[in-house]
Amino acid sequence: SKRFRRHLDRRDLRSFAYLDKKSKPLCYADIVRANERAGILCRVIVDPNCRNKGLGKAFCKDLMNWAREEGGFRKIHLNTFGHNGSALACYESLGFRRIFTKRACRKVGEKWRDLVVMTLNLPAFTLGAPRVTVGKVSGGLLLFNCRAGSLPTMLVAHPGGPFFKNRDDGWWSI
Fold it and tell me: Has this prediction a pTM greater than 0.70?
């Protein structure tokens, strides 16, 4: 739609997605720059067939690493619905803290829903293992395939970033 296209054209917004081998989105999210050091994670969407398999959490970990390493953010804020227990558990497992709850502030269908406001201090965010610091930061691409009733399957991995600049040959994995 035109409205979504205008949304994607914003200069303060970065959009991210995990795609399957047919370029169908498995996960989607935006990070909006609130100010020089803080971002807002919004529109986190996980394909219903891929939920409760760890894919959303892996996606959010990648987003937080990008926000810290590439985006230069020190904090990430988000709002999620209070009745969405899976999302709340996922965000809390990543280190997000509940700041406050806006009671009955969003109408979804015929019901007014609570929004839980959460924040994460990015310098404290890690993947759980000690990180090795090197001279340059590299990123990469990792695609998953999700099928109902099974775990996500990694389809393609490709390292990226400055270390792999002009070194693409032979690095794709299928």
Answer: no
